[in-house]
Amino acid sequence: MPIATVNPANGETLRTFDELGAEGIERRLATATAAFRTYRTTDLPERARLMARAADLLEQDEDAVARTMTTEMGKPLAAARAEAAKCVKAMRWYAGHAEILLADEHPSETEVKDSGASRARVHYRPLGVVLAVMPWNFPLWQVVRFAAPALMAGNTGLLKHASNVPQTALYLEDLFRRAGYPDGCFQTLLVGSGAVEAILRDPRVAAATLTGSEPAGRSVAAVAGEEIKKTVLELGGSDPYVVMPSADIDRAARTAVTARVQNNGQSCIAAKRFIVHTDVYDAFAERFTAGMAALTVGDPMADTTDVGPLASEQGRADLEELVDDAVRRGATALCGGQRPADLPRGWFYTPTVLAGITPDMRIHHEEAFGPVATLYRADSLDEAVALANDTPFGLSSNVWTRDAAEQERFVRDIEAGGVFFNGMTASHPALPFGGVKRSGYGRELSGHGIREFCNVTTVWHGAEPEDGA
């Protein structure tokens, strides 16, 4: 795939970039390694000052970088601005909390004595150069939620971004440079996916993090496993959105629309499978379908647009295949199910609700990455849980119920990295984020995220001799 900015709203190639060669990669690896040797000793207040400065600069750049994101991958401009603002928030959060999150931990006096020590503590040290392989769908946020904690922990970063968002990738390198970070602390590698293995195998790279597809995660995990290097993987998702009889159906249906079409439906944590108890199925289906059908599809730069184009022509083709397969096998399109006739240019797809889904349909098990929702009827709580878990993925989940006993049952039994009640899944810097099953492993954000790329060091002191001994 060429490294280029291609406007998904019209298919026009706006700018192309040369791929970094072997010499360029070596130069950046050497620079990142040298930077780590000194940056790792920088105290936390200085790291916080640099991160806060980067946040200030990003806040000033919000409109310009939002337009770049929209141009490169098609998200509505308002959503792009919100993404930039969210990055500012996360950067400031880590600048303000890292010292507490990385503070030494002290076992109890009894535990210290039992270990045979006079004193002991747990100390957090950075690992080194971390390679980040990042996707196009949240081209700023996905990177910042890695970079902010990794840099605050004292690591240095190498970014291999998706090939269709090169200008956003280069902006991030420039942002940290302008903030005053030492040369080499954060660098962008304009390389294709074929270059990742050699970079990851380089002994100067200590660890890797990847957000992306399941095949990409398998590839990186396999190489890292051979090299015995730490990885964090955030892969696909097919999140359930469960609606039980006690739910506020109007709110649940309105929120469901946003939960499905956020980022033009191209979000790992977007709700995709809508599992509704039979007692409220008809009411929810009517409201949800009406809300999806009422969305405005069009120019992502326009304030009136709700859903822009998919990021690539191949992405739309993949989505169409899933919908067409389901319809051929008996599913009903309650709305949508085709390209919008009034938008012949660009990679647009009409918001779609499919009902009558059966296990023999590909969309029952595969992730639909676009504005397509699947609707299921459940006769009981047990059936709702079973349907929610009938997926190879386990990123997050949404459950609408006001019954406390039902809530505890869903917390106990849903196989996912998060359970969000009476609202939609969203990431926040203070809360851990990640999944189970084929959605990956490890956690981003919160204290868990900043400690993923730390050497958790036990510091143990033997008994001190008494004076005169």
TrEMBL record:
Q: Which residues form the Aldehyde dehydrogenase domain?
A: 3-459
Task: Recite the UniProt keywords alphabetically.
Answer: NADP, Oxidoreductase
One of its Pfam families is: Aldedh
UniProt KW NADP keyword: yes
Question: What InterPro entries does UniProt report for this protein, alphabetically?
Answer: Ald_DH/histidinol_DH, Ald_DH_C, Ald_DH_CS_CYS, Ald_DH_N, Aldehyde_DH_dom, ALDH_GabD1-like, GABD/Sad-like
Q: Note whether NADP occurs among the keywords.
A: yes
Lineage top rank: taxon: Bacteria
Which family does the similarity line name?
A: Belongs to the aldehyde dehydrogenase family.
Q: Write down what this protein is called.
A: NADP-dependent succinic semialdehyde dehydrogenase
Source organism (scientific name): Streptomyces stramineus
